[in-house]
């Protein structure tokens, strides 16, 4: 059984619960109010994956502290509104490296999606090997509605998960799917009535992975995910520059401004 060396209490935005009997780490995202992804959060998540790797984690479950509300609201609107060019570059690079790392972990990964997961909120589930949703949430890549063209690696993750035809329709229409619809197209693998049941199902998935030799399993995973990993590694500098210039464009900045206003009005701020 793995010996836990890392100090997981140092993390601000996640709670890590180790099961010493089966080596499964349950990582609860807890960046209030909606687990939106900032540079600091992404940096922390990347470092966490390295710690879990060193500690020979047998399996990883991601879930959210904000039960029945939100898994992750995606990229942080406020941080991406009028960022400095250096910050935009750093952000895009952190998003890319975290997503790449999560897509090719040696240990199996599951997302228990216990709330909404729009746009960038769908990235963690898509990088994971298995997705279990709860009822009454929305999930999908609706970036086109913000005027954001998806990076190739993100489209590739969607294609890998739901097939090219479904991915084309989903991405081009910018649809957020209900849990039931997400299950029908394979965007989630199962639906559970409660978080507890979802966590049991996640553990069952991870236990199945254990009967396979770890290094053989990793070879197979990397082979099966090669098309995605190639997209991550393709022309990285150019791809990042493209995403940064898109983010800084007037069109995307205006769209972010509009969304921030909508959220403010919703709260009566
Ligand atoms: C190259 C890039 C590739 C990937 C690109 C991805 C683009 C994105 O990810 S853009 C972000 C897309 N996300 C969304 O459109 C979600 C927007 N939020 C919502 O729909 C709702 O907030 C929610 C369904 C997630 C939750 O609804 P709920 O009623 O529970 O809470 P609210 O009152 O709406 O919000 C609470 C609080 O959270 C703030 N907030 C919400 N979303 C974000 C966000 N994405 N970034 C930053 N902050 C967010 C919201 O403003 C409220 O804040 P205050 O309490 O300060 O008013």
UniProtKB/TrEMBL annotation:
Entry keyword set: Acetylation, Fatty acid metabolism, Isomerase, Lipid metabolism, Mitochondrion, Transit peptide
Compartment(s) where it occurs, according to its Swiss-Prot or TrEMBL record: Mitochondrion matrix
A GO molecular function held by the record: delta(3)-delta(2)-enoyl-CoA isomerase activity
InterPro entries in the cross-refs: ClpP/crotonase-like_dom_sf, Enoyl-CoA_hydra/iso
One annotated GO biological process: fatty acid beta-oxidation
Source organism, top-level taxon: Eukaryota
GO cellular component term of the entry, any: mitochondrial matrix
Main location: mitochondrion
Entry-linked Pfam families: ECH_1
Enzymatic reactions: (3Z)-dodecenoyl-CoA = (2E)-dodecenoyl-CoA; (2E)-tetradecenoyl-CoA = (3Z)-tetradecenoyl-CoA; (3Z)-octenoyl-CoA = (2E)-octenoyl-CoA; (3Z)-decenoyl-CoA = (2E)-decenoyl-CoA
Pathway given in the UniProt record: Lipid metabolism; fatty acid beta-oxidation
Function: Key enzyme of fatty acid beta-oxidation. Able to isomerize both 3-cis (3Z) and 3-trans (3E) double bonds into the 2-trans (2E) form in a range of enoyl-CoA species, with a preference for (3Z)-enoyl-CoAs over (3E)-enoyl-CoAs. The catalytic efficiency of this enzyme is not affected by the fatty acyl chain length.
Subunit structure of this chain's protein: Homotrimer.
Protein name in the entry: Enoyl-CoA delta isomerase 1, mitochondrial
